[in-house]
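Example complex used in Figure S2.
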Amino acid sequence: MITFATLCVLGLLWGGVYLLMAEGLNLIYGVMKVVNLAHGDFIVLGGLLAFSLFERGGLTPIAAFPIAAGLLFLIGMAVQLGVLEQITAQGPEGELRTLLATFGLSYVVANASFLLWGSQFQSIPFLQGAVQAGPIAVPEGLLVCSLLAFGVALLVHVWLTRTITGKSVHATAQSALGAASCGLNIRRIRTLAFALGSAMAGGAGALVISLIPFQTSTGGDLTVQAFTLIALGGLGNYPGAWLAAELLGLTEVFTQYYLGSNAASAVVYVVFIGVLIFRPQGLLGRVGRV
Amino acid sequence: MAPPEILSLKGVRAGYGEVAVLHGIDLSLARGETLAVVGANGAGKSTLLRAIMGQIALTGGEIAFEGRTLARFPTYHRTRLGIGYAPEGRQLFPGMSVDENLEMGAARARPAERRKRIERMFGIFPKLAALRRTHCGYLSGGEQQMVAIARALMGEPRLLLLDEPSTGLAPRVVAELYASLASLLGTGLAVLVVEQNARAALRFAGRGVVFEDGRITAQGEAKALIADRRVVSAYVGGLATPEWAGAPTEG
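Predicted assembly (541 residues):
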């Protein structure tokens, strides 16, 4: 029973971490219908930046979080204005071109990271003890990262649903023409969404590098994982992404414990394929009548 | 003295890629005037509104709003200048409530002003007041159309563009919709409505224009167009006469 409870707690906490890694991608896809294939590389870049700040300045991942997020916000803004906004073609052709552009961007970011940090795995030893909650022991680092992840996700959710700027982003995600007809500057909103999504990736990287060692080539795997999560939740659906993150966290932790780490990733994708077959719009994806 | 001109189109040409749809349209609308643009499906009516809103680029001619040429302004800026637009397909935000959809129509206004305008919209479309917390994705077609028009009015435009507001709606709902729109007349708001439901649009508007293959083939007072046998047989008589519209004027 204690083992079961421990696995549940660990699964939920890892879910928070996965959510943080995927939510930026979800925001970008939700607003712009662009799958940012460089998202994982942004996470790695944020992580490696935090690594340097730790190594040279002694900054903890929590202190590095706003710096990495801020830098990636600026990079995201530059990418959106300098590259994606220039790709004006609409429809399937436009989607393919933006997809190819982010694919190229992924290479640029990964190789720039390689030049700066080399190819070795890097990690930050941070909060390596355990918090004892009754009979359950929870790794400190995972607990802090996960709580921060939930905090950020909640903050973004409140911003999107309670403030007029957040609602404008939410509205643009649902109908760009509708938003423009309301006098909303959708170019500015798209830039804000891409920059914010990139900032969330950078911030996530700064935290996650204390839990998972990164190297410059890890980005591709992280992109696939984040995309799986948002597709599972219902593309662009924020509560859905939350639910999917918890489901993935629990599935992975339980599978790892009972079947071993090799089986864990396979089971996650089996769950993903199952959802795509039986509920292709994702767990909380909705089909409106508008 | 005639009311000042609010919208002017001179030799407007536009289309999609290689396909030209509008072939030199000349049109003008005065402040407070209502104009119905009618014609068959594919005649270029919606393209006309897209061109006015900057959704498609002009290949020739000029569009001016209150004497200012619109060429360099993107869609959102044209809305801010004072053009309200309820596009084809309504383009609502289905995951947001009626209140939130209306809020977006006046996103730049102060919160207190936004609330005041929302209450004003519920005065024009009383049905929406009871649905204010409902997500728009769950509304009926007629209710969605009311939200689309109310949202376009939230920015307090001086010109309102309506793209096929009666599409897919039952005759009773069309009557209700146009009755609500009629309550706006006399406020100085100019309305340009494009419709396949020619009878409904021409009964609402003061002036009418008939579109055919991207060209204006007839225009004049709406009442005269309804009475014109050629126009009626081509664009009005061919459509089912809605019960609410009464007997056809051509007898």
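Chain B is about 35% helix and 25% strand. Residues 237-251 of chain B have pLDDT under 50 and may be disordered.
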